[in-house]
């Protein structure tokens, strides 16, 4: 499955899609990009006077690129005709630098394991200047109906 | 303690690591159903299987996972894997 096909299979839409482009994907990991548009709704309230991308949104961006895109790639043909079922099962993140409105971030993930429908990855998110903004370990369950139960 | 009893004790100590706060380690018995009684979710059940593989130096397959509903099921799978290894 190529990068464009993987993006088409993502079960997200605006305002909760946090992947613009996949730069690399293979059995051990994924790399992707996303630009946080200045008019995204959460900046109105996080924070009232100082718009900064919330950590939960950065975590979600890491999960969509690092776990879900990679998971779709790993499931491969199994999800061609069956709906994808996904759920995040754990997240352990540390945050170092704020991401401001308008920044393009790069997410890199590295597979720890994918077994019995559970995908666990180490993820890193870099800001527009290429500095490490957050990193952690995320895991989720990914299944298509044919693949498991 | 017999080999099988040792395996059961080791399995119990692995399972105990993944119990939610409202389930005590004393409530683990052979008959305990991982998901329905011990309130272990499917993601943590995978963690238990991976720990079991490391602890007993065995490898489980998808079919084994499908059969693993209770502690007794897990123990039976572990026993058969260990026996078929030697």
Characterization of this structure:
The complex is a heterodimer of chains A (149) and B (86). In chain A, strands 1-2-4-5-6-3 form a six-stranded antiparallel beta sheet, with helices on one face. Chain A is built from two helices and six strands; from the N terminus they run αββαββββ. Chain A has a single domain, classed as Hotdog Thioesterase (Thiol Ester Dehydrase, Chain A, Roll), CATH 3.10.129.10. Chain A is an alpha+beta fold and 149 residues long. With 86 residues, chain B is an all-alpha fold. Chain B has a single domain, classed as Non-ribosomal Peptide Synthetase Peptidyl Carrier Protein, Chain A, CATH 1.10.1200. Chain B has four helices and no strands. Chain B is globular and about 40 Å long. The model of chain B has no long low-confidence stretch (mean pLDDT 94). The A-B interface holds A 89-90, 113, 115-118, 139-141, 148-149 and B 41-47, 49-50, 62, 65-66.
* Estimated structural class of chain B: mainly alpha
The percent of residues in helical segments of chain B reads 55-70%
Count of DSSP E strands of chain B? 0
Oligomer: heterodimer
Gross geometry of chain B: globular
Strand content of chain B: under 5%
Task: Give average pLDDT of chain A, whole number.
Answer: 93
User: CATH superfamily of chain A, called what?
Assistant: Hotdog Thioesterase
In the CATH classification, which architecture of chain A applies? Roll
CATH topology of chain B: Non-ribosomal Peptide Synthetase Peptidyl Carrier Protein, Chain A
The helical percent of chain A reads 10-25%
Low-confidence runs of chain B: none
Provide the number of structural domains of chain A.
1
- Beta content of chain A comes to 35-45%
Total strand count of chain A, please?
6
Low-confidence stretches of chain A: none
- Give the C-level CATH assignment of chain A: Alpha Beta
CATH architecture annotation of chain B: Orthogonal Bundle
Distance between the termini of chain A: 23 Å
Main pleated sheet of chain B: none
Task: Give the ordered list of helices and strands of chain B.
Answer: HHHH
């Amino acid at each position: 499955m190529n990068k464009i096909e993987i993006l088409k299979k993502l079960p997200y839409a605006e305002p909760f899609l946090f992947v613009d482009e996949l730069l690399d994907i293979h059995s051990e990991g994924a790399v992707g990009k996303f630009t946080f548009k200045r008019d995204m709704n959460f900046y109105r309230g996080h924070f009232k006077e100082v718009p900064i991308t919330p950590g939960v949104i950065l975590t979600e961006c890491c999960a969509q690129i690092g776990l879900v895109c990679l998971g779709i790639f790993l499931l491969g043909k199994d999800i061609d005709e069956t709906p994808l079922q996904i759920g995040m099962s754990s997240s352990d993140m540390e945050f170092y630098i704020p991401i401001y409105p308008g920044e393009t971030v790069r997410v890199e993930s590295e597979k720890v394991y994918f077994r019995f429908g559970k995908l666990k990855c180490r993820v890193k998110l870099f800001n527009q200047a290429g500095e490490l903004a957050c990193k952690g370990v995320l895991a989720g369950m990914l299944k298509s109906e044919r693949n498991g139960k | 303690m017999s080999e099988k009893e040792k395996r059961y004790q080791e399995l119990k100590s692995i399972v105990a690591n993944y119990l939610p706060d409202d389930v005590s380690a004393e409530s683990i018995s052979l008959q305990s159903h991982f998901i329905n009684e011990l309130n272990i979710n499917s993601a943590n059940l995978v963690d238990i299987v991976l720990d079991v593989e490391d602890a007993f130096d065995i490898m489980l397959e998808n079919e084994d996972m499908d059969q693993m509903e209770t502690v007794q099921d897990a123990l039976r799978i572990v026993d058969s894997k260990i026996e078929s290894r030697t």
